[in-house]
Amino acid sequence: MARRKKIYEGKAKILYEGPEPGTLVQYFKDEGAAGPTATEGENLASEGKGVLNNRLSEFFMSGLNSIGVPTHFIRRINMREQLVREVEIVPLEVVVRNFAAGDLSARLGIPEGTALPRPIVEYFYKDPRLNAPLVSEEHIIAFGWASQQDLDDIIALALRVNDFLSGVMLGVGIRLADFRIEVGRVWEGDFMRLLLADEISPDSCRLWDLRRPEGASTGAEAGPLADVYTELARRLGVLPSNVTHAPKPSLIN
Predict the structure, then answer these.
(1) How much is the pLDDT for 220?
(2) CB of 154 closer than 8 Å to CB of 146
């Protein structure tokens, strides 16, 4: 069997050359950042985490495709791999916030769990050497990372993803406090369009459990989702039969 060409390896995934031009194989590792944004959380290794993230990302990406939100996802190949479209990643991490938490609370002094008056979209420059700093639209346009039209399209895309994810999560007793996405460019002839890329999984979401025992209380009136990977997959009905537990991580805090 021919050895596949590795295109990129990050903390949580490996990208290989795909079987057809313009495609990649995305492999989910058990390692990865445990946090809702790139600037928060810690690295972890959790047996079965990659399998669950593959299933969860497939579930969310397929759902978004079905309602007309364009994504790079094509199909799941096996327990750890999926076929995706090759895209040029916009060098931004796009964070959508529905509730104050994490670094937003720290930066602005807003109590954790405070409902925001509307979803807030923030941008972080994708450069691991700089620890993904928060940047403004002025920075993005001035340095040519994206155009104003790109940003308008990214906001529209991010808010549609937020509406979908918030509704799905609420339906299984989970509050979506915030999440991170990445966006990629594809060209179809001379026409360029933006797609949701990377993944959607607990690695990139902050989730609070609304099904807590009576008497438990936090400022958000919801607690961290224990054993988040397994429990989220179970509630959504995508838990593989041969994966019953992904140890630890309470990555939403």
Answers:
(1) 46
(2) yes
